[in-house]
Amino acid sequence: MSEMQDYKSRVSDPASRKFETFSYLPEMTTEQIRTQIAYIVKKGWNPALEHTEPEHLMDNYWYMWKLPMFGETDVDVVMKEAEACRKANPNNHIRLLAYDNYKQSQGTNMVIFRGKTV
User: Which of the chain's termini has less CB crowding within 10 Å, N or C?
Assistant: First the structure.
């Protein structure tokens, strides 16, 4: 059996906190984000954006950026909204969500921009 790596993520150290699967990987490039958005719209899911301050990362409440983009199929429109959210909240974590109409749940969510940690 191989050696398991311990990620030293601690509540007391905001810079160390891991918040979802992709946070263990390097930050996504613009093209990788576009690929995720393309997958979301291909599935027919409704994209949405949320943001929060890094110190509130582990709280249950994130601020919604506008309303979900119901029926949006243009990757560029979603990407522009993500960039607008980032510009308006440069120090916040920003996550992309996708709502599945049929299952009445989230199809996916991931942090696409990481804010500055304290």
Answer: N
Beta carbons of 58 and 13 less than 8 angstroms apart: no
Q: Indicate the Cα dihedral angle 30, 37, 75, 34, nearest 10°.
A: 20
Helix (H, G, I), strand (E, B) or coil at 90: coil
Find out whether 32 and 73 touch, Cβ atoms under 8 Å. no
How sure is the predictor about 57, in pLDDT bands with cuts at 50, 70 and 90?
A: confident
**Mind listing the pLDDT tens digit for each residue in 2-48?**
677 666 777 677 666 666 666 677 889 999 999 999 999 999 999 99
